[in-house]
Amino acid sequence: MENQENIAKKWQICPECNGQGRVRQKIKRKKKLYYEKALEIYENTDQKGEKPIPPKSHLKICENCNASGIIPSENYPIPDTEHFPKIAIIGGGIGGVALAVACLHRGIPFTLYEKDESFNARMQGYGLTLQQANVAIKAFGIKKLKDGIVSTRHVVHNIEGKILGEWGKRKWLANNEKTATRRSNMHIARQSLRLELLQQLDEKNAVKWNHQLLDLKNLTDKTVELKFKINDEIKTTKADLVVGADGIRSTVRNFIIDEKLSPLRYLDCIVILGICPLKKNKTLKSELLDSETVFQTANGVERMYMMPYSSTEIMWQFSYPISEELALNLSREGSKALKNDVFERTKSWHSPISDIISGTPQENISGYPVYDRVVLNSDLFKKIGSVTLLGDAAHPMSPFKGQGANQALLDALSLAKIIYKNCKYKNWREDGIRTSVLNQFEKEMLERTAIKVKDSREAATILHSETVLIETNQPRGNILK
Ligand SMILES: Cc1cc2nc3c(=O)[nH]c(=O)nc-3n(C[C@H](O)[C@H](O)[C@H](O)COP(=O)(O)OP(=O)(O)OC[C@H]3O[C@@H](n4cnc5c(N)ncnc54)[C@H](O)[C@@H]3O)c2cc1C
After folding, report:
1. Residue of 111, 113, 114 to mutate, ligand 1, most atoms within 8 A of C-beta
2. Is residue 330 situated within a structural domain?
3. Which residues form the FAD-binding domain (predicted)?
4. Ligand 1: distance of its center to the CA of 124 in Å?
């Protein structure tokens, strides 16, 4: 099975767990008998005291699919339009593409609409750290990320280079600490992860590039009408369910939720990003550049974070508090101004920071003001018909806890699993997709992500404060907890 999994290119739902990755354990005979006896006594004593509660079966990992919910297959399942709703996914970022792949494996019919003309239509160069999603990724048919890099060491310095904190596998193993067995983080370029997912969709022609959603309308028959702009043409189509996976400035969200209820919230800082090639630059020599180390350096106001981007490149992320107006101006001025700004602010910081900034090609630099939104209440969704949101469209958060893409992947998996479970063997058309699927999905998603939005927001403050300089061997965001 393990070998088959490593070479598999196509997947289908695991029949043992119905794609859920978990199965109910049988209730032990002893427990059953105990309950039956207690119930008999209760009924024979005029129902005095508390009524015995039937024993619950616990969930356990499905051994047939190793908890992934999918198994290797010769072909993808044929889309089952009889049992499942027809889904329109708006946005081909990490969340939208992940949902499409999870639907593909389950035979759920879908079309993915992306406004960009092609995969590489614009620069989308930054790296992601996969935390929970590093485990969840196998549920998308990816056993091992081709370009993924595992970090084994995380170091925090002050600007003189003094180590203020250090953790990670390398330190735990050296000290024989139990934590050495803990889950590891995977670093991957956003585009590499997106590509690995998109490749599964290739032969299905399921991605409609150059389709910008302009309008959507819930119809009386509970379907949704969608209007797209393709070059100068307008195209209209219909779907049973629309999923807005169209990012922090989501068009779908604008149609269904009043912007005033949770407007974009500026987090008082800018983040500037760059990707620096390491091989060509022979002056760049430092144990921090071993492609397995993540390091950050801070002065209590400004913060530099560097992580492996690929085996030959490092990604840096520099951030500091600034007014929204100045952040927008600097961002508009472009990469030359951004590079100068970072260079001037860090030129006296410890090695190899300024060499890395100088060695970063201008075209690899971008910068944005940081925003999130107040978390939505799931009741708000109940009135919006056959439309839902996931990823940044639903719960944008600051990048300082590295959780946005992780949560978008978990959202996608959760939605596909709920659609499969609640539609395959039940008639969702009777109650409608909102009652059958969406209310449950949104409740789970919003409960899971609320704390991530909050922690990511707090991290935006902590990382640009004196707190970051406290000497402790743990992630800075955890210091106050
Ligand atoms: C600097 C930085 C570092 C980060 N680091 C991490 C990290 O380490 N770990 C982590 O988990 N997350 C990280 N994140 C967050 C993560 O990148 C996002 O949360 C994640 O990419 C969101 O995915 P998404 O699919 O919801 O949205 P997006 O990736 O924004 O995708 C939205 C897609 O929708 C398309 N679209 C928009 N409007 C329309 C329309 N009208 N019609 C059709 N298509 C449309 C867009 O073109 C885009 O392709 C980071 C973010 C930044 C900025």
Report:
1. 114
2. no
3. 87-420
4. 9
What total number of domains does the chain contain?
1
Residue at 16 is within a domain: yes
Closest to 2 in 3D by CA, of 91, 68, 81, 78: 68
Q: Which domain holds residue 7?
A: 2-21+62-72
- Those residues whose C-beta lies under 8 Å from the C-beta of residue 448, and which sit 6 or more positions away, are 407, 410
Sign of torsion, CA 161 162 167 171?
Answer: positive
User: How far is 399 from 370, CA to CA, in rounded Å?
Assistant: 8
Cα–Cα distance measured from residue 351 to residue 286, given in angstroms and rounded to the nearest whole number: 8
Q: What is the pLDDT of residues 192-240, one digit of tens each?
A: 999 999 999 987 678 999 999 999 999 999 999 999 999 999 999 999 9
- Residue-wise pLDDT tens digits, 110-161: 999 999 998 888 776 788 988 876 778 999 999 888 888 888 899 999 999 9
Q: Does residue 414 form part of some domain? A: no
Query: Dihedral sign, CA of 34, 37, 40, 42?
Result: negative
Closest residue CA from atom 48 of ligand 1:
93
